[in-house]
TrEMBL record:
Any Pfam family matching the protein: TetR
Occurrences of domain HTH tetR-type (ranges): 7-67
Name by which UniProt lists this protein: Transcriptional regulator, TetR family
Organism: Algoriphagus zhangzhouensis
SUPFAM superfamilies for the chain: Homeodomain-like (SSF46689)
Lineage of origin: Bacteria, Pseudomonadati, Bacteroidota, Cytophagia, Cytophagales
Domain of life: Bacteria
Molecular function as annotated in GO: DNA binding
UniProt key word tRNA-binding: no
PROSITE patterns in the record: HTH_TETR_2
Amino acid sequence: MTEIKKIKTKDRILIEAIKLYNEMGVQNVTSRHIASEMGISHGNLDYHYKTKEDIIQAIYKKMRKEMSDSYGGRKVGTSSLEHFHILLLHLEDFQHKYRFFNLDVLEVSRTFPTIFETIQETFVKRRQTTVELFKEFVTDGYLVPMENAAIERLEHTIRMIITFWLSQREVMATYKFTEKGEMINSIYSTIEPYLTEEGKKEQKRACELYGLKLSDQ
């Protein structure tokens, strides 16, 4: 008989916190709310996480590890553009899994300085990784030759789309493009002017292989 591994209280707290933050927003959930939903005492929760900042910091570290595994976990034999497509699919699912963070990122950054520092460290790492991947696009013949500054600006634009995608959907409620896959389509629309014919073929192949209908198809 297979033994079911019991989830530690410390991990259960994070699971419940993510659920409540997603449903109600960070500002509307206290540690006592989390403890009450779990059926444990506030003192028990406080033993593991003294403050809300501690809880959010632990969640963010969990998020960062998950995405780092995705950024670094390139499948053997995949092209640079194929890897990018897989990464975008994961990023979209990831955003909904931890949607509170993207929706409340400005408030979190302003309220919790240690988390803000960690976010900035993550942005630096993601920028370096993505810029290097885009340079590989050029080497592989998927992107037209570009200066480093142009590649960095392209990465910056895409990072803004990813970071604020969920927020703009709520604020710009009268716009369309809200269905699953539209964030990825918006990113591809940004890249498309720089794709070579070979790049467009590889992009289409990746979409057909892993899913996502491009908006212009």
